[in-house]
Amino acid sequence: xxxxxxxxxxxxxxxxxxxxxxxxxxxxxxxxxxxxxxxxxxxxxxxxxxxxxxxxxxxxxxxxxxxxxxxxxxxxxxxxxxxxxxxxxxxxxxxxxxxxxxxxxxxxxxxxxxxxxxxxxxxxxxxxxxxxxxxxxxxxxxxxxxxxxxxxxxxxxxxxxxxxxxxxxxxxxxxxxxxxxxxxxxxxxxxxxxxxxxxxxxxxxxxxxxxxxxxxxxxxxxxxxxxxxxxxxxxxxxxxxxxxxxxxxxxxxxxxxxxxxxxxxxxxxxxxxxxxxxxxxxxxxxxxxxxxxxxxxxxxxxxxxxxxxxxxxx
Length: 314
Description:
The chain is of the alpha+beta class. It folds into two domains: 83 residues, Phosphorylase Kinase, domain 1 (2-Layer Sandwich), CATH 3.30.200.20; 218 residues, Aminoglycoside 3'-phosphotransferase, Chain: A, domain 2 (Alpha-Beta Complex), CATH 3.90.1200. 47% of the residues lie in helices and 13% in strands. The protein is built from twelve helices and nine strands. Helix 6 packs across helix 10, helix 7 packs across helix 10 and helix 9 crosses helix 10. The longest helix is centred in the C-terminal third of the chain and has 28 residues. The termini are far apart.
C-alpha cells in the first residue's frame, strides 16, 4: 500500500520498494527511484506510531539550518511519508580513532545549533517523572527480568538515592531542544559532507547535556576518558556556559548515567517484551560505561558495588 501511495504522489503507475534498515520502533523505511534521484518512503502504522511529531520536528530542525530530511508528502492518517534520501553512510561506520578529529567538529556544530537555534516551544518537557520512569527500566527489565535478580528491600534506598541525584542534576541544567537519540546510528554523512539527522520524532525540551552524552557514550566505539572530557569542555566553551567546568562535567556524567541505565533497561525490554534479537549483546558496553562513570563519584559507591556483583553483571 505504501508503494501505491508513493507512486500516486509521484505520478507513477507503480514503484519498486527497496528495504532500508529500520529501527527499534514499528516504523519501516524503503528506498524508491524517481528518475535520477532516490527518495525514502516511511511506513509508520498509525495505530502504533504517531507521525505528527516527526513532521513537526523535521521542520523545526530544517528551520534552524540543520540537515533533517525534507518531507515532500505525508499522510498522517495512513502513516505514509515521502522523504528526502540522506544516503547510507552512517557515522557508525565511519567514526574511528583515525577519522574522529575530522568528523567530531561537525557533529558538535550540529549539537550547538540544536541547543541554540531549534525552537522547543510546545514540545513535551523532559520532566522528573519521565526521567524516573526511564530509570525504572533498569531494575524492572534488566535486573528483575533479564538477570532474575530483583533489588532487595535493603537495596532500594541505594537505588532511590542514585535516582534522586541524577534527576536533580538533570533539572539543574539549562534546558533546550533535545533530540533524545543523537548517536552514530541516527546520523548520516550526506553527499555534501554534512551531518544528516534522523530518528528525531521523540524530541523534547530537556537538559542541555543529554544529546552530547548520547553521542559520546556510543553503541559501537568506546572513547578514552581523557578524550570524553576534552569534548565536554569543547562544548562548554562553544556555548559559553555560565557554570564551572567541574559542574559541567558532573552534569554530563550524571546525565550519562541516567541515559545508560535507561538503555540497559530498554535493551532488555526489547528482547523480552518485543522479541527483538540482538540488543542483549550490546548491553556489556553500556554496563561498562556505568561502572567507569561511577568510579568518579564515591557518593554512589554502594550502587557500584551492587553492579559489580556477579549475579548483576551482564
